[in-house]
Design goal:
Layout: H1 2-22, H2 32-51, H3 55-68, H4 73-85, H5 89-102, H6 107-120, H7 123-136, H8 141-153
Length: about 150
Amino acid sequence: KGLTKGILLCVIISFIFIGVETAGEKVTGISKQDAEKLAIEHQTYGNKYDDNGKFKEAIEEYQKSLEYVSDNAETLFNLAIVYLKANKPTEAAATLEKLVKLSANDAEGYTLLGIAYRGCGKETESKNAWERSLKLNPDQPKVKEMLNDKVSKQ
């Protein structure tokens, strides 16, 4: 009897710890293909909300999309744009940092990262992002203008 109670107690404690460990995680139990479909669905809703100027709702939909496919560059890009439109440069910068890690050759991603950093008051990081963007694509007069403007103000 004592052994049975001990085993039962261990099983209960294990379930408690497993439950605590997975709390807050979205455990979908769905296939990768279904997850991709749901991610696209939420991204589409996010696009519609963005088009209608409903930034809070767009952000929520893009975040839901990323719960299903966390490394979708297009969703990260769109989310960052909406953060910038909603005057949330810190969130935009964090999102764009993820984007440029996934897409290291994305000149536009670095351009937007520079804008987000500028919105956060991070002058050096802004300059570095714009220089990286120009290194990837030198034919960007507006980025050159922002970079020269930023350098002249320092």
